[in-house]
Amino acid sequence: MANPKRRHSNTRTRLRRAHDFLSPKPVSKCTHCGAAVLTHQICPACGYYRGRQVITVKVKEKKKKS
């Protein structure tokens, strides 16, 4: 089996690793409520997708302090 005869330079190693980073997921604003939403997903805040309501979202009630 072949073994490397020389060490790779730092530049060559970094050029190879240039595509290994993770890119952030694309986030857009909901057209109905303005919340941050992943693209092509139903808005978790209001339940709208592409201008029409797809699901009804339950609103959590705040607990009263005793």
Structure characterization notes:
With 66 residues, the protein is of the alpha+beta class. It has a domain at 25-59. The protein contains 1 helix and 4 strands. The chain has a two-stranded antiparallel sheet. It has a two-stranded antiparallel ribbon with strand order 3-4. A hairpin with a 6-residue loop joins strand 1 and strand 2 (36-38). It is elongated. The protein starts with 9 loop residues before the first helix and ends in a 13-residue tail after the last strand. The model has no long low-confidence stretch (mean pLDDT 90).
In short:
This protein is an alpha+beta fold and about 70 residues long. Helices cover about 10% and strands about 15% of the residues.
Key features of this structure:
two-stranded antiparallel sheet; 66 residues; 15% strand; 4 strands; alpha+beta
Report the average pLDDT across residues. Answer: 90
- Over all CA atoms, what is the radius of gyration? 24 Å
Q: If helices are DSSP runs of H or I spanning 4 or more residues, what is the number of helices?
A: 1
Large-scale geometry:
elongated
Low-confidence segments, given as residue ranges, are none
User: In order across it, which strands form the biggest sheet?
Assistant: 1-2
Helix percent reads 10-25%
Tell me the fraction of residues in β-strands, as a range: 15-25%
Compute the number of strand runs. 4
Q: Mind describing the biggest β-sheet? A: 2 strands, antiparallel
Could you say which structural class the secondary elements and strand pairing correspond to?
alpha+beta
What's the order of the H and E elements? HEEEE
Could you tell me how far the N terminus lies from the C terminus, measured between alpha carbons in angstroms? 74 Å
